[in-house]
What does this fold into?
Amino acid sequence: MRDKQKIIRELSKGYAPQGEGAKPQIAKVYDLTFKPLVNSKKLEAFFELYGENEVIIKAWAFLGIYQILEKKSYATPENLARLREIIIDILNNNQSITFWSGSIKTETTLRQHHAKRISWLDPYFVFDPVFEYCKSSIGQLDSVIGMLLEEVISKRSDEGVEELLIEHGKTAGQDNYEAKVQLIRAFENLAEISDLENRDAISPIFKHFLERVKEKGEEDFDVSIDEKKKRVLKDELIRIGAKLQLDMEAQILSFIESLDRPFNALNQIAENYKDNEKFCKLLLEKLDTTKNRYFITDILRAIVVVKNNIGNWKELVIDNVKKYELNDADLIIDLNKANLLSEEMIVNYLTKGTQWHLEFIREFLTTHPEILDKWDTLREELVKILKTFADNEFQEKSGTLYYEKKRLALRLIVDLKWNEMMDLALENFKKLSDDELKKIALFAIITSRNNDILDKLRAIMDEDERTQSYVKQFWKYLEARDWQFFY
It folds into this structure.
């Protein structure tokens, strides 16, 4: 490598994984020394640099190797053999490195810093050395090994993978909750690409992890970081245990029985327990006792799954949706799949026009835009709203039925990029006096990319200076906020 010592001197000034946000001196090193070497695709040069003793040079060297190999080129057998040696070395290297990104100082190790990049490379490049490393590290499960098991090892069904995961599960320590989550997700990954052959050995691992997790009952804002990690682990053990059909019925039912908080995987549990009488009974008991709207949403989604075992499920679900004024997007999708939403119901909601009714309609239509092509009556009602204008300024004030319905219809033009309604959006922009409604109509027009309607807007601006000033001012407002407009 030409100018090797000069390059080493420059790289020794400090390290940064990217030029943007680095200290000026290091950003200069990144842009003028490191990046040209990457662009030259000199993989051999980075292999040579990795052989230096200084950890900063090793950090730069693997960053360069990664940036070249992420394009999946230059992967000759010789290069992959060198890469294998370097990966094993990195995963055993706990030397400290420090770098800055803006005002944020990061202190880590070479192993922790580059392990993720190893997982991002093509599995063909990294699987063998990562497998070798994880096999040699049984009994040492931590977040790096857990990440490699989840992101690399479990994405292939090679011989020995399931056994390796089981061995790490059997020997895992007590307190590394994050690594345990990664490990059980690795089992989930493996089950998605192959049949698990040894569920009898996996079930005790899940049960043991569950027994060691003792979760406090505080609300989220009062729970320590460790308690939150425990909760994630507990939730994932239940979710994945049910999904993999492990021998955990008693543990899963006990978890549901004690549950008093939202659990968004409840409907996934229901898929595997839909014929379990006790599970269905527990859902009804929880629905009867909780007042937590988010938990109620989760319960209703689960009830939709087990509906065949609950006699009055339709009335139960719809009554609770109305009672608690729920408008969760996933719940609405489930309701529609279960044929619980009809055109008559949605038109009735539009007629009532309370804030919740209109929010429900908006959520429903943004998740099911095709409905407007199928439900003529609903579409005609929305068109009628867009064509109707207030008789006086009081009618157009925020909070009135006219105002709320008009705002919904205009928002839907934006949400759905409803090009058929652009002429009506322009008509509303011209005639409305309320500033918020005018801006929603204008936002729909200028973000439509509809040249015909934009030409019509320009023509109005040419005829009226006040309109021209209004549009230009709003345009500047959007540009200053990167086109973020909370309509």
